[in-house]
Amino acid sequence: MEMYKSVISTCPYCGCGCSMILEVVDGKLRGVLPNKTGPVNEGKLCIKGWKAHEFISSPKRLAHPYVRKVDELQQVSWDEAMDVACKQLQKIKDQHGPNSIGFFTSAKCTNEENYLLQKFARAVIGTNNVDHCARL
Hints:
The protein is α+β, with helices and mostly antiparallel strands.
C-alpha cells in the first residue's frame, strides 16, 4: 500500500513566495499543486512552480561528482571534486585575476542557493561576474 502525504511549502524559484502543495508518495516527490489558501498566489502557480518536482528525481540528474582525467570523466569522491575545483579556481585567480572568473547558476536552484553563489563569488573570489537564468 502506497503512503500518500501532502506537504505545504513555498516555491523556491523567485521572491514572490507562492504557496504550493508537494505530493509525496512513499517518501518521493511525485507532483505539485497550487495551494488554494496561499495569500500570495491565491491558488495559482507559474510554469516553474508547476514543474518544480520534475528535476528532483530525474534519471538524468548527476548523483556523484566527476572530474576529467586524461580526456575522460571519472567518478570521484566529493572531497576530491571540491579539492580539484578549489585548486583550479585559485590557479585562474592567481594567473588572471578575480574578474577572469564568472559564475552562472540555474533557475533550478533555490533563491538561497543563488544567494550563496553570488556571496561566494563576491566575498571569496572577489568578482561581481554573477548571472543566472532565474528571471521571470
